[in-house]
Amino acid sequence: MKRFTPAVFTLALVATQPSYAQTANTDAVMPTIDVTTDTPSYDAKQSTVAGFDEAPLKDTSASVSVITAETLQNQQAKLLSDIIKNDASITENYAPVGYYENIAIRGFALDYGNSYQINGMSIAGEQNVALDNKERVEILKGVSSLQNGAAAPGGLVNYVTKRPANVLSILLGFDSNGSRQYSTDLGILFGEHKQFGLRINAAHEDIHSYVEHADGRREFASVAASWIISPKAALQFNIEHQEKVQRSVSGYQLLGNTTVPANASRTKLLGYQSWMDPVKISALNMDMRLDLELSRQWRSYFAVSRSRTVIDDNVAFAYGDPNFGISFGANGDYGIYDYRNSDDTRRNDQAKAVLLGNVDTGSIHHNITLGVSTTRRTVDKSDGINEYIGSDNIYNPNPVVLPSSGKTMPDAYRNLDSRQQALFVTDKIRLNEQWQIIGGGRQIWLQEKNYDDTGSTIRNTDRSLFLPQLALIYQPTNRTTLYTNYTENLSLGGQTPWWVDNAMVFLSPTKTRQIEAGIKHDLNNDVSVTAALFQMRKPFEYPQPDSSLAGYTYVQQGDQTHRGIELGANGNVTKRLHITAGITLLQARASHSGTPSYDGHQTINAPRVRSAVHADYRVPGMENLNVLGSWLYSAKKAANREGTAEVGAYHVFNTGVRYQTRLGGNTATIRFTVDNVFNKYYWKDVGEYLGDSYLHLGAPRTARISLQYDF
Question: What confidence score (pLDDT) does residue 41 get?
Answer without folding.
Answer: 62
